[in-house]
Specification:
Blueprint (H helix, E strand, L loop, with lengths): L2 H16 L5 H10 L6 H16 L1 H11 L9 H16 L8 H4 L5 H15 L9 H9 L3 H11 L1 H11 L5 E5 L6 H10 L5 E2 L6 E4 L9 H4 L3 E3 L2 H10 L6 E4 L6 H9 L5 E6 L2 H14 L4 E5 L14 E7 L14 H4 L2 H18 L3 E11 L8 H10 L3 E3 L3 H4 L8 E2 L2 E4 L1 H4 L4 E8 L2
Helix pairs in contact: 1-3, 1-5, 3-5, 4-5, 5-7, 8-9, 9-10, 13-14, 17-18
Length: 442
């Protein structure tokens, strides 16, 4: 497909994403499935351009307005998105050889044709006005909203916050969790090599493999045989750290599509009992499909409206209750950069209230001596420490287990953050996670 047409598709795709609360990856997948005529090279260009523009959106907008200084252009919403994409390609990734004046005049944008020669020249030599305020400076440089930058600086300090912001604009690696119910890490690597896919072992998870480049892994025989699941390395670590006994009775109360549920099943060697619940029946159906492919048969799934539905005859019966709580997902921004433009401070407050309710509702289900595990894929104290510490104040029968006791087995002591566990993309190369392991004493 010619570049002008591709840019028109990118404009349409970005407009769709910015008008929706759905994750960008889901919308991009839907967009591609409805346009079968797009070749693999076209899809790659559109995905990379759209993700890149979302990652650098605020910076691109600032550079664009700087480039438009002195013009009297009236810019509508659709033209604005096209101009931002052009800014990203020229000023951020420096594809000046692609976006020539000849290409721009073929775009369906009279405004851009009018502005083209002068604007393209200005964007090819972008100048940022020095910003003194650290919040605004980091917000523009790394394209994050000021409220979120302010939170990061307040909770992590300016130096650490800048490292986090920079790392969240990087592309996340593709990592696989080897299904040890069906194969070993080495045998899985060999199976992938036979399909011309090279992998390297992950640095933290003993069951992880990383792909150095993208591949159509869902079409591979090794995937159909249930040898692996696609799962971030950080997500692989949480079940590993909880390390349930094969005889355990475990509740995965917010199981979703079952990524961690299946990891628990492998660790328990298909023994014991895992109850996987979720409010979304479609996610649970995906879990069942994945379990069949992976040869998992110690999982029983159940749709619920609320965790409180389980309270009653199930009280005090679970060795482990695992809560992968609904959260803002800020730790997954590398994969879903649109999150930074949809999550608000009001969103965080609403989620925090929901998280407190889920944690308190699940507590009676844990047996004495059992563990209540609270996990999120976000960085903010309001969704993490503050939720757990509020629960502990009102629930004297629970106390946090010192992380050193369960981190040392896997040589992961550096993940300890006080009484809890924290994974950070700039330090650990994973998505961002928080985890608290609480023991019921009475």
């Amino acid at each position: 497909m010619q570049l002008p047409s591709l840019l028109g598709h990118a404009q349409e795709l970005l407009l769709t994403i910015r008008n929706s609360d759905r994750p960008a990856d889901s919308l991009i997948d839907t967009f591609f499935r409805s346009r079968k005529y797009l070749g693999s090279r076209d899809r790659r260009f559109l995905a990379e351009t759209t993700y890149g523009t979302l990652r650098h959106l605020r910076r691109c907008e600032v550079l664009l307005w700087k480039g438009l200084e002195g013009t009297k252009a009236e810019i509508g919403r659709e033209d604005g998105f096209l101009l931002v994409i052009v800014t990203y390609l020229i000023a951020v990734v420096r594809k000046t050889d692609l976006l020539t004046n000849d290409v721009v005049v073929k775009l369906q944008s009279p405004l851009l044709k009018e502005l083209a020669p002068d604007l393209l020249q200005r964007l090819s030599s972008p100048e940022m006005v020095p910003i003194q305020d650290p919040v605004e400076r980091l917000g523009v440089l790394h394209s994050f909203p000021d409220w979120l930058v302010e939170r990061f600086i307040r909770e992590y300090g300016e130096e650490e916050a800048e490292k986090m912001l920079a790392s969240l604009n990087e592309q996340a690696p593709i990592t696989l969790r080897v299904n040890t119910l069906k194969t070993t890490v080495e045998e899985c690597r060999k199976a992938l090599q036979r399909e011309e896919v090279e992998t390297t072992p992950t640095g933290l998870s003993p069951f992880g493999l990383e792909l150095p480049k993208r591949a159509n892994i869902f079409q591979m025989q090794a995937f159909r045989d249930g040898f692996f699941e696609v799962q971030d390395e950080g997500s692989q670590l949480l079940p590993l750290l909880i390390d349930p006994k094969p005889t355990a009775k475990l509740l995965d109360a917010c199981a979703g599509a079952g990524g961690k549920t299946l990891a628990f099943a492998a660790l328990m060697k298909n023994r014991g009992e895992i109850v996987a619940t979720d409010v979304n029946k479609f996610r649970l159906e995906e879990l069942r499909k994945r379990a069949r492919r992976g040869g998992v048969f110690n999982v029983r799934s159940r749709e619920i409206a609320d965790v409180v539905d389980l309270v009653g005859d199930q009280n005090g019966t679970f060795d482990v209750v695992f809560l992968d709580a609904p959260c803002s997902g800020l730790g997954t921004i590398r994969r879903n950069p649109g999150i930074k433009w949809t999550v608000t401070e009001e969103t965080i407050s609403e989620l925090s209230a929901k998280q407190r309710h889920i944690l308190e509702s699940a507590a009676p289900l844990v047996k004495k001596g059992g563990r209540l595990v609270y996990a999120t894929c976000t960085f903010l104290r309001e969704e993490n420490e503050e939720v757990v510490e509020d629960f502990l104040r009102r629930s004297p029968g629970f106390s946090p287990l010192p992380p050193e006791g369960y981190l040392s087995k896997w040589n992961l002591l550096h993940l300890a953050s006080g009484s809890y566990i924290r994974l950070l993309p700039h330090r650990d190369g994973t998505d961002g996670f928080f985890c608290a392991v609480l023991e019921r004493n009475s």
